[in-house]
Structures are given as C-alpha cells and as structure tokens.
C-alpha cells in the first residue's frame, strides 16, 4: 500500500515538473508555425522585438528544463548541461520545422538568439541565483531553481 502511494506521488511530481516544459515547447511550436507578419515601417523595431522574443522564450524553456531535470535527481551541473543540449536541439528542430511554414524559413541567426537565451538562463541560474539577495533566493527556491 505504501509503495503504491509513493509511486503515485512520484508520478504526480514528475507530471508537475515536466508538464510546463511540454506546454512551453508547444507555445514555441505554435508561434513558429504561424506565417510571419509584414515587417513594420521601422524595420529595426520589428527586428528587436522578434529577436528579444527568441531570447526570452528559450530562456524560459531552458529554465523549465533545468528545473525538471534537477528535480529528477540530477546534479545542478548535469541538469544545466542537459538543459543546454535539449534546448539547442529543440531550437534546431524548430528552425527545421519552419521550412514547412508559409512565409518562414530557417535562419542560423534565430538559432544564435535562441542559444543566447539558453546560455543566459543557465548563467543566471548557476552564477547569479546562489549569490542573489535573500528575496530573490526565496523565490528561486520556491520555483525549485536553487
């Protein structure tokens, strides 16, 4: 009986950790499946907005991956390595998938912005959060990042 309860709790824990990862991956897929809109009159504004979106969406994706992997009993260092690897592979697959989306094409530049977000997230998690002010560390612990 205790074993069944323990197994159920473990399944629920994994579900709670991995569901946000898959939902976020779905959000990325959804937005990259949409045909592009016309470029605004001020091209640099469009560029800044879209590239910032790449950095932010992959930073969030990597953070969710890190949390799920770390809480699955990997060390922080291994969780960071695997998070980087998985997120870059997902970014590559996302760029490849854009071959089949009208008005879109894969771009190495986008993958570079994705990777920037990935590395930025891991840098913040590993270097900044452990030394952050108490209030930030409190929230990082609640979000299972530290």
From TrEMBL:
Tagged with keyword rRNA-binding? no
State the UniProt keywords alphabetically.
Membrane, Transmembrane, Transmembrane helix
Query: VanZ-like domain spans which residues?
Result: 18-125
The residue ranges crossing the membrane are 15-32, 111-129
Query: Superkingdom of this entry's organism?
Result: Bacteria
InterPro entries, alphabetized: VanZ-like (IPR006976)
Protein name from the UniProt record = VanZ-like domain-containing protein
Organism this protein belongs to: Candidatus Woesebacteria bacterium RIFCSPLOWO2_01_FULL_39_10b
The root-end lineage is:
Bacteria, Candidatus Woeseibacteriota
């Amino acid at each position: 009986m205790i074993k069944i309860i323990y197994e159920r709790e473990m399944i629920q824990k994994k579900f709670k950790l991995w569901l946000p990862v898959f939902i976020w991956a779905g959000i990325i897929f959804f937005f990259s499946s949409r045909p592009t809109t016309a470029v605004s009159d001020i091209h640099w504004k469009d560029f800044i907005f879209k590239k910032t979106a790449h950095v932010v969406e992959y930073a969030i994706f990597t953070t969710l991956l890190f949390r799920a992997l770390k809480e699955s009993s990997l060390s922080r260092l291994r969780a960071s390595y695997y998070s980087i690897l998985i997120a870059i592979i997902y970014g590559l697959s996302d760029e490849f998938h854009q071959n089949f989306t009208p008005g879109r094409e894969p771009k190495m530049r986008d993958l570079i912005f994705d990777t920037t977000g990935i590395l930025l997230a891991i840098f913040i998690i590993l270097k900044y959060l452990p030394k952050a002010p108490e209030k930030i560390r409190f929230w990082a612990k609640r979000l299972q990042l530290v």
